[in-house]
Design goal:
The structure is a single chain. By secondary structure, this protein is an alpha+beta fold. It folds into 3 domains: 7-195, no CATH class; 208-271; 286-408, Heat Shock Protein 90 (2-Layer Sandwich), CATH 3.30.565.10. Helices cover 63% and strands 9% of the residues. The protein has 12 helices and 5 strands. Strands 1-2-3-5-4 form a 5-stranded mixed sheet, covered by helices on one side. Helix 4 (70-86) runs antiparallel to helix 5 (94-107). The chain crosses the membrane at residues 41-59, 71-89, 130-148, 154-176.
Length: 411
């Protein structure tokens, strides 16, 4: 499975460049500077126009304010023009711009909007400790500003209170935007980790299933080779055996060699994923289904077996073994997730059409507590059926139950 692209960055122009940089782990590791997106250009140009517009309004107010000399008004306009131009630097140096504009705002009306924009940018892009110091200094300088530049239309206390609340509101807005972006980054990181963990769990389940299949193949292959060796040894030590007995032994050797080659092809595909161990276990076949159902009934389950297979003795051992494992895992899942229900195991098939295995259970009565680690057995069954050349499907039924349905080739 390949890496899943970040779903939040599908429309890159819609998000701020700083947020995209945090959502892109490759860019963060490389330390690349984020490029402005289309949204960044629109926002920066809007901030620049806002600063210029408020500055022009302040120029008209300066002309009507008798407390401001003409020379100071000219200096005020020059400082305001420089502050508006510096707004374009707010993304690269948010802290430096906010610190530089803080003392200028005391002596310049036309740079007030640029100072608030710089303070907002600082709250968005930097931690709270920087915002607290710079924002606190800005609020503390508000009384000094209106003492140097008293408003002609507003009382001193009203003007100070309004400007202080405006500064606090801008800082709060910036901190809210920063918290929202951090939440998006956190959700994206959690989604990425969940996808990675799910992929690792699936890969681990497939690896364990392949190793288990490889162990079974090892046992079967050893059994076939031992059988072949026994019959070959009999021919070697009984060269005077009757022709019919010799022909029968040669046929057994040929069939055993053919089956061993088939098992060997399967085990080679399995061994690519992991090393099998040498633990020998008796291998079940389709004939062991009756024993499996009997054991389940003794354990307290209500199990019905429907066996409609033409010539069960002719079913290949590898196919019968796979069918047995599918039925076994289906009964195990029913016992864990639907205790007390009537489980039906249906096996049908014929040579040339394949073998169908169905394990069905109705919905359980009452609430069943979740079982940790569920789903890994079904992953192994799917892998097993695929290696056998068949297919397996599982899932809930429209009536609320659950079924495992498999088809295995029988040629």
């Amino acid at each position: 499975m390949g890496e899943t692209p970040a779903p939040l960055t599908g429309r890159r122009w819609f998000f701020p460049s700083a947020l995209l940089h945090e959502l892109d782990p490759d860019a963060a590791r490389a330390g690349r500077r984020p490029r402005r997106t289309a949204r960044d250009w629109v926002v920066d140009f809007s901030c620049f126009l806002l600063a210029v517009g408020v500055g022009l309004t302040a120029v008209e107010a300066l002309a009507d304010n008798p407390h401001v000399p003409d020379g100071l008004a000219v200096v005020d306009q020059v400082i305001g023009a420089l502050a508006c131009a510096a707004v374009w630097l707010r993304r690269r140096w948010p802290l430096g711009l906010a610190v530089a504009l803080t003392p200028l705002n005391v002596f310049s009306d036309t740079s007030g909007a640029a100072g608030l924009i710089a303070l907002f940018t600082l709250a968005v892009h930097r931690p709270f400790r920087y915002v607290a110091w710079v924002g606190g200094v800005n609020v503390a300088l508000v009384p000094l500003y209106y003492w140097v530049r008293p408003e002609a239309d507003l009382p001193y206390l009203v003007a100070v209170l309004f400007a202080g609340l405006l500064t606090v509101a801008v800082v709060g807005w910036g901190m809210f935007v920063r918290a929202k972006r951090q939440l998006m980054v956190s959700l994206q990181d959690r989604a990425r980790r969940a996808e990675t963990e799910a992929r690792l769990r699936a890969e681990q389940g497939q690896r364990l299933a392949r190793e288990a299949i490889a162990r079974e193949m090892h046992d079967v292959l050893a059994h076939r080779l031992t059988l072949l060796s026994v019959h070959a040894g009999a021919l070697e030590f009984r060269p005077d055996a009757p022709p019919a007995q010799t022909a029968r032994a040669a046929g057994v050797i040929r069939e055993s060699a053919h089956d061993a080659l088939q098992d060997l092809r399967e085990i080679i595909g399995v061994l690519r994923a992991g090393e099998p161990d040498d633990t020998g276990r008796p291998q079940p076949t389709l004939a062991a289904l009756d024993t499996l159902v009997a054991e389940s009934r003794e354990a307290g389950m209500k199990v019905s077996l429907v066996h409609r297979v033409e010539d069960p003795a002719a079913v290949p051992s590898s196919v019968g073994r796979t069918a047995f494992r599918i039925a076994q895992e289906g009964l195990t899942n029913a016992r864990k997730h639907a205790p007390g229900t009537d489980v039906t195991v249906t096996v049908t098939g014929a040579p040339g059409t394949g073998l169908d295995v169905l394990v069905h259970n109705p919905p359980p009565e009452g609430e069943v507590p979740p079982v940790p680690g569920s789903g890994q057995g079904l992953i192994g069954l799917t892998e097993r059926a695929t290696l056998a050349g068949g297919r397996l499907e599982h899932g809930p039924t429209p009536q609320g139950g659950f079924e495992v349905r498999a088809w295995l080739p029988w040629g």
